[in-house]
């Protein structure tokens, strides 16, 4: 009977080791990747008009520049999630970094519209690896303060949007959109330079039967954090118990080691394809959470990118509504850079507010509250307002929608087991990208066609449906330990 107490899980190890130097390194690395993703998305707020002017594009062709990136992300987020769940978080994000940086840099040299669209689609596929970084960092964070640290991680996205707005303000009037694309691809290269120093997730390693490798990561974490691991053997609830009778000295750190053939068999069994992964996500234990999460992500991403692009449309709309802008003049569009820069700063207080709420009131209540607040701030924008009041309302709306979107990003990987975590989160994000594809083609296009009231009404409907879906989430994950397998989930 006493043997059962001589074991510990990854969750218990993380609780003992705390959040220290090791996690700060993981936070820095994954945070750079998350900021780089934000920069590539924020580019869409600045490059549409100059490209339209240079290549004489129609409004629909300009809108397609944004939509094709989201279409690539739709494909990439599901694909990279399945790949990282099968072959590791590290392999997942290194390939996404290669695709994003390569295609992003080459798109600066695009000779024509078709080439540019193809390369930006590839950038979108690379950006689909964002949930892999999110899941990787999550699996190193102790459960007790996971919400706060995941919110801090999300600050990196906001910093990326602010950096891109600042970069555009400086680069666009002087050097043009090609230089902006080239410079914005540089941060992703940092992921490749320091890739050799990144550890694999010990939780992922346990699910693949590589307990010895997971133990090495945890021992390295213990040394860097100047802490000690619990006494006993590392196990995973992926298996749930030891095979056969084993006696472990109480004072020693032991590793559960299986023979090579068992490791290979378990690894082969745990590799799941695209169809089987989707079936697992829609299994009886997960179907309600998955479907409601998809609705929540669709609404939040539709609203988030809609608000980002709406800032450009409303800043530009006073000149373009009555008559199309035929020539792009950076010096005349200084208000665009100013408004996007100001509203980008709204993400910082939004994340601070979420950090205060998420571990105190829970994920569900925090997200619903922020969505309702965004609904209220959008109401006056259904009618034309002064420039200053419009910017203030967009600032407050983006504050709220950033907080709600980040709350969902924290909740999503927490409800899925390790064996499905990146796939589940990636699939939800992929469904959300459908909202990102539709948003510039429908909502923002309505503003450009002088239908501002209809555009805001559409946002309000989508936000309302999203809030209802979040309110019906089946579980609250605040302070809850992460599961490793589908079988270990509480029904």
From TrEMBL:
<feature type="transmembrane region" description="Helical">
    <location>
        <begin position="177"/>
        <end position="198"/>
    </location>
</feature>
<dbReference type="GO" id="GO:0016020">
    <property type="term" value="C:membrane"/>
</dbReference>
<feature type="transmembrane region" description="Helical">
    <location>
        <begin position="92"/>
        <end position="110"/>
    </location>
</feature>
<dbReference type="InterPro" id="IPR036259">
    <property type="entry name" value="MFS_trans_sf"/>
</dbReference>
<feature type="transmembrane region" description="Helical">
    <location>
        <begin position="291"/>
        <end position="314"/>
    </location>
</feature>
<feature type="transmembrane region" description="Helical">
    <location>
        <begin position="455"/>
        <end position="475"/>
    </location>
</feature>
<keyword id="KW-0813">Transport</keyword>
<feature type="transmembrane region" description="Helical">
    <location>
        <begin position="389"/>
        <end position="412"/>
    </location>
</feature>
<feature type="transmembrane region" description="Helical">
    <location>
        <begin position="63"/>
        <end position="80"/>
    </location>
</feature>
<dbReference type="Pfam" id="PF00083">
    <property type="entry name" value="Sugar_tr"/>
</dbReference>
<feature type="transmembrane region" description="Helical">
    <location>
        <begin position="24"/>
        <end position="51"/>
    </location>
</feature>
<feature type="transmembrane region" description="Helical">
    <location>
        <begin position="116"/>
        <end position="138"/>
    </location>
</feature>
<keyword id="KW-1133">Transmembrane helix</keyword>
<feature type="transmembrane region" description="Helical">
    <location>
        <begin position="334"/>
        <end position="358"/>
    </location>
</feature>
<dbReference type="InterPro" id="IPR005829">
    <property type="entry name" value="Sugar_transporter_CS"/>
</dbReference>
<dbReference type="InterPro" id="IPR011701">
    <property type="entry name" value="MFS"/>
</dbReference>
<protein>
    <recommendedName>
        <fullName>Major facilitator superfamily (MFS) profile domain-containing protein</fullName>
    </recommendedName>
</protein>
<feature type="transmembrane region" description="Helical">
    <location>
        <begin position="424"/>
        <end position="443"/>
    </location>
</feature>
<dbReference type="InterPro" id="IPR020846">
    <property type="entry name" value="MFS_dom"/>
</dbReference>
<feature type="transmembrane region" description="Helical">
    <location>
        <begin position="365"/>
        <end position="383"/>
    </location>
</feature>
<dbReference type="GO" id="GO:0022857">
    <property type="term" value="F:transmembrane transporter activity"/>
</dbReference>
<keyword id="KW-0812">Transmembrane</keyword>
<dbReference type="InterPro" id="IPR005828">
    <property type="entry name" value="MFS_sugar_transport-like"/>
</dbReference>
<feature type="domain" description="Major facilitator superfamily (MFS) profile">
    <location>
        <begin position="26"/>
        <end position="478"/>
    </location>
</feature>
<keyword id="KW-0472">Membrane</keyword>
<feature type="transmembrane region" description="Helical">
    <location>
        <begin position="150"/>
        <end position="171"/>
    </location>
</feature>
<dbReference type="Pfam" id="PF07690">
    <property type="entry name" value="MFS_1"/>
</dbReference>
